[in-house]
Amino acid sequence: MTGEKVSVIIPAYNSSRTIYSAVDSVMKQGIPVEVIIVDDCSTDDLTGALDGYAEDDRVNIIRNEKNMGVAVSRNRGVAAATCRYVAFIDSDDQWQPDKLAKQLKLMEQTGAVLCSTARELVNEDGSRTGKVIGVPEKVTYKMLLRGNVINCSSVVMDRQVALRYPMGNDDIHEDYICWLQILKEYGSSVAINEPLLLYRQMRNSKSGSKLSSAKKTFAVYRKVGYGVIRSCFYFMCYAVNGVVKYLF
């Protein structure tokens, strides 16, 4: 897969303090990239933060006319992408330099339509914690129901699949629903159990509140069509996995 180009989609809202480091980490990948930044009506100086890329033809900035949320912003990025593969990274995260190359190689070897990676947690100020959240090297639909082990900022996927399964439900875990829909059709995805993603923990993020995240996870099970009893079963699995993930 030498020379394969990837469209990298970065939804951004008031992220002028962190977006340069995110984009810079994308530019340091060992393969060609097309960077699509979707500005979701930011009120800070996001444009100024990206001045260093103003003349870079690899960077395309799309501006929403009104605040649409992260799901719609990612979908707009996918629609604008021109490459066979798309990758997602949030504007406060970073990648290790060889992330995309390793994922594309694995996808070529396995024929998988989606690949994720492990991640290292980073403090809000950008300092690294050394705490790594691992991933199984194969993720099945049934495994995913017991807890979302696919972090969006680590994902590379086939663009045609992303177009068929756009993200929605921005009020809950929009990416989790998307992964479940994809794996229900394709059976499984692959992953690299290396912390190729540096994941920044932000106090004001959607997933920052564990109680809020738990409520949204239960809503995901109901959204994908499971009854209350089945949803409670999967929610208990999610809760146990969450304790194991963060404490051990």
Automatic annotation (TrEMBL):
SUPFAM superfamilies hit by this protein: Nucleotide-diphospho-sugar transferases
Pfam families: Glycos_transf_2 (PF00535)
GO MF: hexosyltransferase activity
Name of the protein: Glycosyl transferase
Domain Glycosyltransferase 2-like: 7-139
InterPro entries named among the record's database cross-references: Glyco_trans_2-like, Nucleotide-diphossugar_trans
Record keywords: Transferase
